[in-house]
Design brief:
By secondary structure, the protein is mainly alpha-helical. 88% of the residues lie in helices and 0% in strands. The protein has 3 helices and no strands.
Length: 85
Amino acid sequence: MTSNTAAGGTAAADETLGYEQARDELIEVVRRLEAGGTSLEESLALWERGEELAKVCRRWLEGARARLDAALAEEATEDETESSG
């Protein structure tokens, strides 16, 4: 039950992580998993942390994509307005 509480606290902290921070920590998690030498419990904890970090990165990338799409749509609308006016 302690791990659920800790995971909940970590999830809340993940909201403040920037993309680069989450990506760098994810790289470190993957490196540690690939290196081996950790217990099953440690490996599972690393895997779970990696999943959370991947979600953070995905949210940042999806947000960036939405902003780009909105900017491109706005630019296209402005171009149409200039062309017709």
